Write a sequence for this structure.
């Protein structure tokens, strides 16, 4: 039976959109792709943290627009909905490349609180008016990352 | 001269946070890392678009929480501050792996409008109540991606 118009249209759109991103839309097999997606989130957080740290240390010129952008972007990333990213069955050992500890699923409130801590620390850096102010906020920012990793991230694979 | 307490603290925090992300905090050389970071953003958008497309096509069960999470996450990504991601001097040919066309910097209003189109299309999918409703919104979503790519993304490297 010929696929409906909607199915063919959606297929064409989705394939066209994601083809060059190398996303293999396997039948119902999205779990491992969730690991890749959350690692991408972490890479974006690390990138923006590096900008703030570079400015704090004087390795990059202080730039208020870059400070605000980096801080807001980290806060946005920390506030994202985790339902699509930490899918059941993707803990370390169950999904390739995953370092997710089972506590993520057994203690969702704690996991959520860790992200809120990151969001708060990042938001506090918006408007930091010079390198010293950025530096003053890095403690809470790095502390949020560290605390979450200690509890919810396993060893390197 | 010994580094100040602040510098040492910030260094320790930043290195500890980002070491396992493989982020090489080279002296002032963040430009190429911006390409990697925006590709991570695009990967996250593609991943979430794939979830919505999979649900629309019936390849994945309809799940309202997943639909809302995917739609909201795409909207959040589309709304991120681009100052840290599309840095001057990172167009295709100038930065490794970049496919960014110069129009991104010569037509920032147009580039911004393209992201607003994506944010609007994604936001419209929040609350889509069944697979058909998700399918109905995929046209605008895919159309936003396609339109931006046609104008601001160069050929594969």
């Amino acid at each position: 039976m010929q696929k409906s118009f909607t199915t063919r249209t959606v297929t064409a759109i989705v394939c066209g959109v994601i083809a060059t991103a190398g996303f293999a839309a396997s039948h119902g097999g999205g779990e491992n792709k969730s690991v890749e997606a959350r690692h991408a989130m972490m890479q974006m957080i690390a990138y923006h943290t590096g900008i703030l740290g570079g400015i704090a240390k004087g390795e990059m010129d202080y730039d208020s627009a870059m400070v605000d952008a980096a801080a807001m972007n980290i806060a946005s990333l920390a506030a994202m909905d985790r339902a699509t990213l930490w899918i059941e069955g993707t803990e370390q050992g169950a999904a390739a490349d995953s370092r997710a500890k089972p506590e993520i699923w057994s203690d969702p409130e704690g996991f959520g609180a860790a992200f809120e801590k990151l969001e708060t620390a990042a938001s506090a850096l918006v408007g930091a008016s010079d390198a010293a102010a950025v530096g003053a906020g890095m403690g809470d920012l790095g502390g949020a990352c560290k605390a979450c990793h200690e509890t919810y991230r396993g060893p390197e694979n």
User: Anything to note?
Assistant: The CA atoms of residues 42 and 143 of chain A lie 15 Å apart. Helices of chain A lie at 5-18, 31-56, 64-78, 103-106, 108-123, 131-152.
